[in-house]
Predict the structure.
Amino acid sequence: MPLNVLRGLLRGASRRVMTGKKGNKNFYKGRGVKPTGFHTKKGHYVIVPKKVPEFVVPDLTDFELKPYVSYHSPKVVCPPMNENNLLQEVADNLQNIRFKETP
């Protein structure tokens, strides 16, 4: 018993990421994903529609831009942002910022 404690102190703690494969057979660690339902007493899984992620994709049928950027496109160089430029940008777009729809 004391030998195992001493060996553990000398070896040091593991600083790696703790995954489900590193623990014992009863250790369960998820990957940070929210569950979409719950387990019942009989072992079934009930999906809650409010918890299912919903992806809202706009209709892009008549959209003129392509889904990629060509390597032959011209490089756009912007001047570095400083306090005066930022203040001017905010002042120019203040009307749009006030009425911008927030989720």
